[in-house]
Amino acid sequence: MTTQPPAPDPDTTPWGLRPRRSRPDLIVAGSPERVLSRLVLEDENGSLWILEEVAAGAVTQKERQAEILDRLSFSGLKSVHPYLRDRCGSWIACGKGSCRMLRPFLDGDFPERPGYAREAWRGEALGTFLAGLRRAAHSLPPEIQGLPFSLETFVGDLLERIRRRDPAILPELSSAVLRLRERLFPVLARLPSAFCHGDFHPLNAIWSQRTLKSVIDWEFCGPKTEAFDAALLMGCIGMEDPQALTGSFIPAFLAGIRRENLLSPASLSVLFELVLAVRFLWLSEWLRGRDMEMARLELDYMDLLLSEESLLREAWELPR
Predict the structure, then answer these.
(1) Whether residue 162 sits in one domain with residue 82
(2) Are the CB atoms for 116 and 250 separated by under 8 Å?
(3) Mapping DSSP to helix (H, G, I), strand (E, B) and coil, where does residue 112 land?
(4) Full residue range of the structural domain in which residue 43 is found
(5) Which end of the chain has the smaller Cβ count within 10 Å, N or C?
(6) Phi and psi for 92 in degrees, rounded to 5?
(7) Tens of pLDDT along 76-130?
(8) Residue 114 CB: number of other CB atoms within 10 A?
(9) For 149-163, how does the pLDDT look when each residue is reduced to its tens digit (9 = 90+)?
(10) Is the pLDDT confidence value at 31 over 90?
């Protein structure tokens, strides 16, 4: 269950919406850290909406995100639910000292943890979604996609911060860093890129009992190496339940990826290393929040990935 941030002023006048009541009994999926506050409202027709208050410094990024979701939906991507433009045609209404956005509220079933990580149908559904995203993203002009993200640069910058702030961790990263420098970084810039969700894992989705209803939390979307979303998802499944690394979820997910030819042979050849590399983003997050217990768990997880590499390559049908 996600802790809810404070509720914003329920003024929906810019959208011509008449709220009948707030619905604090409904839980909003996704990270509450993406906005300053959010509130579920029920209008006079019984429709449900999420009113979000966003920081003034985030307005440009939020407008870009809203435009991307609108274009993806218009291009036929299912399981995305765009924000609503206000009566002036804007994605964000600013006034009374705040900036607000409005989007539909979708109710869903919260996956049981860690059991969801072994459910093949969820892996298949997320693979199907990525195929749809790849097709729909062709409609996005380069100017709204954002700047390309470099994993190599990110890892290098993180290691420099660790040297300054947490040098005791460095020896424990040596095996993972060596693998990336030997196998991934020399080829990374030559791999195909694609528009990616950027934070693609099963808890950034709204589910019904047997279907994927919506994919949420697009703050990190943009051009990345084409296997980024796949690598992030696979790594998160194992972090949820290490035994799920060889369970049915990941093979079902990869079967859809292969069927749709989403990844080139070059990307598949370093998919294991990409899974390892993306864990550095999570390590950065734990260190930023000084959650040293999770940082320690992340280090142990990287060691597990490396020690079980042969088993994982066999389970994922990856070249050695």
Answers:
(1) no
(2) no
(3) coil
(4) 13-104
(5) N
(6) -125, 130
(7) 999 999 999 999 999 999 988 899 999 999 999 989 999 999 999 999 999 999 9
(8) 14
(9) 999 999 999 999 999
(10) no
Which pTM was predicted? Answer: 0.93
Closest-CA residue to 50 (of 84, 93, 97): 84
At residue 315, the pLDDT reads 97
Q: Tell me: the pLDDT tens digits for 161-217?
A: 999 999 999 999 999 999 999 999 999 999 999 999 999 999 999 999 899 999 999
- 50-71: average pLDDT: 96
Is there a contact between 239 and 202 (Cβ–Cβ < 8 Å)? Answer: no
> Strand pairing partners for 93?
100
For residues 96 and 172, membership in a common domain is answered with no
Question: Domain for residue 7, yes or no?
Answer: no
DSSP label of 115: G
* Rounded distance between C-alpha atoms, residue 136 and residue 214, angstroms: 15
Amino acid at 199: D
CATH of the domain at 47: 3.30.200.20
Residue 199's contacts (CB-CB under 8 Å, 6 or more residues apart) are 217, 218, 219, 220, 232
Q: 305 and 173, same structural domain?
A: yes
Sorting pLDDT into bands at 50, 70 and 90, what band is 7? low
Q: What is the CATH number of the domain that holds 188?
A: 3.90.1200.10
CA distance 123 to 2: 23
Largest CA distance in the chain: 61
pLDDT of 1: 39
Structure tokens at 312: 């994982």
| CB of 122 closer than 8 Å to CB of 202 | yes
Torsion (CA) 272, 278, 284, 286 in degrees, nearest 10: -80
180 in any annotated domain: yes
- Opening angle at CA 303, ends 297 and 307, nearest 5: 140
